[in-house]
Design goal:
Chain lengths: 112, 112
């Protein structure tokens, strides 16, 4: 979707290194989310934000941190990447729960 | 948080045949219900949603879903599928807490 972009699209990193994924939106939506997608698990919420500098944990937040210093940017950081964090990461934005989410194209992260 | 169960992980179907994808969720006072579709190597796209009102909702490409409160279900149907409907389908539920909970997904493979 043109209103939300994720970078990078693909990344290979080594175990133990820090990694930051970026989500950028041009829709001025209040809510932003990071999910990971793994076979058999669907999408699981890592962290979400309900405003600038307002973030909270999702169901699989261990090993991840986030920051949102501007409305348009939501960063996901893996402090010390592990092989279990190999996944496809999706960012999503929402005006509110009535509208559902708009998803980015995803970042495929491989930790070797 | 809501839990969402998609009862079929894989659904093979022949072109022009009908298909039904089943979704059940844990009960709550009020919920918003969504179906998303994910084509290969893409992000998720909103297919249809139920917020209130008529229990039968339709999408522009021939899918429909029916909200059944007593059975806590939101099954997705299409009377005649096309090859282009081959994709993964996700049911999602929100309890007005601005977070979506997703099912594990159902992969639909349409064969000629």
């Amino acid at each position: 979707d043109a209103g939300i972009t994720q970078s990078p699209r693909h990344k290979v990193t080594e175990t133990g290194t820090p990694v930051t994924l970026r989500c950028h939106q041009t829709e001025n939506h209040r809510y932003m989310y990071w999910y990971r997608q793994d076979p058999g698990h669907g999408l699981r919420l890592i962290h979400y934000s309900y405003g600038v500098k307002d973030t909270d944990k999702g169901e699989v937040s261990d090993g991840y941190s986030v920051s949102r210093s501007k409305t348009e940017d939501f960063l996901l950081t893996l402090e010390s990447a592990t092989s279990s964090q190999t996944s496809v990461y999706f960012c999503a934005i929402s005006r509110d729960s009535n509208y559902g989410y708009t998803f980015g194209s995803g970042t495929r992260l491989t930790v070797v | 948080a809501q839990s969402v169960t998609q009862l079929d992980s894989q659904v093979p179907v022949f072109e022009e045949a009908p298909v039904e994808l089943r979704c059940n969720y844990s009960s709550s006072v009020s919920v918003y219900l969504f179906w998303y579709v994910q084509y290969p190597n893409q992000g998720l796209q909103l297919l249809l949603k139920y917020l209130s009102g008529s229990t039968l909702v339709e999408s522009i490409n021939g899918f429909e879903a029916e909200f059944n409160k007593s059975q806590t279900s939101f099954h997705l149907r299409k009377p005649s599928v096309h090859i282009s409907d081959t994709a993964e389908y996700f049911c999602a539920v929100s309890s007005n807490d601005y977070k979506l909970s997703f099912g594990a997904g159902t992969t639909v493979t349409v064969r000629a």
